[in-house]
Amino acid sequence: MDTSYIYYAYGIRDFECTKTEYKGNTIIHHIQKRDVKTRCECCHSHVVVRNGFKIRKIRSVNIGTKQSILHVKVRRLKCKTCGADVYEDLHFVTGKQRYTHRLARLVIELLHRMTIKDVAHYLGLSWDTVKDIHKNYLNHKFSHIDIKDVKHIGIDEFALRKGHVYLTIVVDMLSGAIIHVGDGKGIDSLKKFWPKLKRSGAKIESVSSDMSAAFISAIKKNLPDAIHVFDHFHVQKLAGEALDKVRREVYNQEKDLEKRKVIKGTRWLLLRHDKDIFTEDEKKRLDNVIKMNEPLSKAYILNEYLQEVWKQDSYKEGEAVLDDWIKQARESKVPTLEKLGNSIAAYRTGILAYYKCRTSNAKVEGINNKIKVLKRNAYGYRDIDYFKLRLFNLHNDKITRFVG
Ligand SMILES: [Zn+2]
């Protein structure tokens, strides 16, 4: 077989094929370097002598439905100039990997449309090999992330495994790209991010996060000029939790067994928000439970009403709605809601900061949904570094069902 075939089919220069075997589903090409001038791998001296060889078995791209394996004769060269005594490098393979660059490129290409499992099956590779190829590719792609033009960031944390492994992500609010993944949660998780941000020269105008004291002080310290926004999701979550607490309190106090039955199991109806309730039966159940009990009714209305804070046209209107909301909560005569009113009042500035930068959460919510899909795939737990790299790649992953 001539050298140009080896070159065009496999992207391998200066090798010739000495023998081809056909074994079942496999084609084996025995290849060796043509007699071109040899150089020392270390000092590039031509004064070298051959000192034996070994055979490396390397997978390359399939030929039709057949798998192809290259049995490569790798020479060992001893250098008379520098004394090095090493095997020659192969230009078509990285280090000790057992697949060619061309096969790796094909895998990456296929992963745009297929799952790891499908690619592995199609090419006759192991799941781990396909994953490793993807991991190397992503490692290279994200070895440096340019953040100098980022202006609005969002910080969020999530559990990879409930109660065990936490990750904290920093998202570019405009592009939706994840620009940093920190281990753990809270203030320590961002220890490496702040110096990186400083070095990049980025001018951050706003930071969006939850209301934890750790983030508040870290942002004040590291980005004193940025506006700190408490994001809608986390504020709304507080109200939802208070609503659920009132529901449980009401349930425990209720003596009438029939009424208890009505309250029980309405948690999701209460928290779903009015506009998301479609069936007549659900509407009826919701009406029933709200009418039955005044504290629960107040909690429900406050949870719904809070959403209006983010739907106004101006800071002033938003402020008016929020202040009215706080007043109603504080005057509700329901201790849980009064307490909620006081908490929200304490977060007032950060909530209204939304109107000062108006970054939408849409991109971040999109990313959060993709993270959920990614998490469902167990490999994240087996190889956390790979999982993190997949996070960086998420906003490029248009078709999330293909992440497996
Ligand atoms: Zn040398």
TrEMBL record:
<dbReference type="Pfam" id="PF01610">
    <property type="entry name" value="DDE_Tnp_ISL3"/>
</dbReference>
<feature type="domain" description="Transposase IS204/IS1001/IS1096/IS1165 helix-turn-helix">
    <location>
        <begin position="88"/>
        <end position="135"/>
    </location>
</feature>
<dbReference type="InterPro" id="IPR029261">
    <property type="entry name" value="Transposase_Znf"/>
</dbReference>
<dbReference type="Pfam" id="PF13542">
    <property type="entry name" value="HTH_Tnp_ISL3"/>
</dbReference>
<protein>
    <submittedName>
        <fullName>ISL3 family transposase</fullName>
    </submittedName>
</protein>
<dbReference type="InterPro" id="IPR032877">
    <property type="entry name" value="Transposase_HTH"/>
</dbReference>
<dbReference type="InterPro" id="IPR047951">
    <property type="entry name" value="Transpos_ISL3"/>
</dbReference>
<dbReference type="InterPro" id="IPR002560">
    <property type="entry name" value="Transposase_DDE"/>
</dbReference>
<feature type="domain" description="Transposase IS204/IS1001/IS1096/IS1165 DDE">
    <location>
        <begin position="153"/>
        <end position="391"/>
    </location>
</feature>
<feature type="domain" description="Transposase IS204/IS1001/IS1096/IS1165 zinc-finger">
    <location>
        <begin position="38"/>
        <end position="82"/>
    </location>
</feature>
<dbReference type="Pfam" id="PF14690">
    <property type="entry name" value="Zn_ribbon_ISL3"/>
</dbReference>
